Amino acid sequence: MKIEILFPEFCNLYGDISNMAYLKKCLPNEEYIETAIDEEPTFITTDVDFIYLGAMTENMQEKVIKKLLPYKARIEELIEKNVVFLFTGNALEVLGKYIENEDGTKIEGLGIFDVYAKRDMMHRHNSLFTGKYEDIEIVGFKSQFTMMYGNIENEYFMEVEKGVGINPKVKYEGIKKNNFFGTYVTGPILILNPLFTKKILQLLGIEEPSIALESDVMAAYEARLEEFKKVPFEK
């Protein structure tokens, strides 16, 4: 199995690179490819099983868009082929139509998803989050200068239980298409959500997955979920 981690030297805000550190503990015998920003992604010429991109600074978003734009068709092809993707934090915005600055200028994205983001760099949104994907409850955190807009009713990742969706007016969070998962929720999401991690492993072809430190992460997940449900959330 080949797992490609895109631009880990820069796309690692909020400790989300720990998603991959944890995955390495769950799947220690697989091949991990860490692709730097000045290198050609492996997925361009080689079939990979899992592609990860983490949260980044706003300046880095522009560089990542420029880097990935020539490979738009290949990314769309891999999504259609059910390759597993996980994009966390503002990484999802790279695949939208554009990112709009406060002054109205726009940074064109890859346009793979029919969404766009609007920045408000003077107001960071921070909140706790709980949502549901299929029968799995998801917990995590949000810390972002942007909100996303667009119709995702047919390809959202989670239904919001408490917290904010892609923007405060909707109860949907993230994007899911085939085995692509994109979400603003950080945490890191794989460590905080062992049941979701098991789902990812199943999508990678592991029929009865076990995860690293399972009893500990399950106990932490259950305690955190109970705690989050007691906290008053922004509506």
The H/E string reads EHEEHHEEEEEEEEEEHHH
Low-confidence stretches: none
Q: State the share of residues found in helices, binned by percent.
A: 25-40%
> Count of helices?
6
How do you describe this structure in short?
This protein is of the alpha/beta class and 235 residues long.
Could you walk me through the main structural features you see in this protein, from its secondary elements to its overall organization?
It contains 6 helices and 13 strands. By secondary structure, it is of the alpha/beta class. The protein has one domain: Rossmann fold. The strands form 2 sheets. Strands 2-1-3-4-13-12-11-8-9 form a 9-stranded mixed beta sheet. The model has no long low-confidence stretch (mean pLDDT 96).
Give descriptors for this structure.
6 helices; Rossmann fold; nine-stranded mixed beta sheet; alpha/beta; 235 residues; globular
SSE inventory with pairings:
Layout: E1 2-6, H1 18-26, E2 31-35, E3 50-53, H2 58-68, H3 72-80, E4 84-88, E5 98-100, E6 106-108, E7 116-119, E8 125-133, E9 136-144, E10 146-149, E11 156-162, E12 172-177, E13 180-183, H4 189-192, H5 194-203, H6 214-230
Parallel strand pairs: 1-2, 1-3, 3-4, 4-13, 5-7
Antiparallel strand pairs: 5-6, 7-10, 8-9, 8-11, 11-12, 12-13
